[in-house]
Amino acid sequence: MTNAEHVLVGREATPEPPGLGSSTLGQVLQLSELNEYTGRRGVVVLSSAGKRSALRNDGYSVFPAVPGLINETLRILRPGALVLDGNALDEGPWAGAMTDASPELLTELTDAVATARDLELPIYWLGEIPADPEHPPARLAEHLLVVTPGSELYEGTVEGAPPSRLVRALRTIVS
Predict the structure, then answer these.
(1) CB 12: neighbour CB atoms within 10 A?
(2) Which residues, 6+ apart, have CB-to-CB distance to 139 below 8 Å?
(3) Strands 39-46 and 79-85
(4) % of residues, the chain, pLDDT over 70
(5) How many angstroms separate the CA atoms of 36 and 54, rounded?
(6) What are the pLDDT digits (tens) for 88-144?
(7) Cβ neighbours of residue 30 closer than 8 Å, sequence gap 6 or more
(8) How far apart are CA 121 and CA 79, in angstroms?
(9) Who's near 25: CB < 8 A, 6+ residues apart?
């Protein structure tokens, strides 16, 4: 039997997956081709599915913040903002990020805030910032725009400047 007559089956018959040999998950997922998430209308959101859906309903292109991919997502997509929901850090894929249970998630979240700052993106925090200065969000607070009842972004500015469309949408989500 010659090679021409040899029928390939199993692994031999399986074609190479797209992106094989790419150095990063973002390249394999071809994030650079997702142009709808770039610019003012694109936001990377660490939140529950319901809150991401509410932002989509307000006309935003919402890309979920995924552990292991958030920093690369910010660098490649260049969204208009990063939105972090404090409540989403207690459940789902980011559960344990604010405790000793998953210090690698806290490191990744801290790196994501640093990446967003380097890219000059606004970083919105939904929820209360704990008073304890050793609590992780408190250490990041100087870089966060807090949207929660009682905060300046929630109540509005003294000058009466109109809030951005994104801030209005975030107010609705947290109220």
Answers:
(1) 8
(2) 133
(3) parallel
(4) 74
(5) 17
(6) 888 889 988 888 888 899 899 999 999 999 999 999 988 887 777 666 666 677 777
(7) 18, 19
(8) 8
(9) 68, 69, 72
Other beta carbons within 10 angstroms of residue 166's beta carbon come to 21
Phi, psi (5° rounding) for residue 125?
Answer: -110, 125
Q: How far apart are CA 145 and CA 121, in angstroms?
A: 11
What does each C-alpha distance from 60 to 37, 104, 175 come to in angstroms? 9, 29, 19
- Distance, in Å, from the CA atom of 155 to the CA atom of 141, rounded to the nearest integer, reads 18
Judged on CB neighbours under 10 Å (0-12, 13-18, 19+), 91 is: exposed
User: pLDDT value at position 71?
Assistant: 92
- Cβ(46)–Cβ(40) below 8 Å: no
User: Among 105, 60, 112, which Cα is nearest to 82's?
Assistant: 112
User: Do 42 and 80 touch, CB atoms closer than 8 A?
Assistant: yes
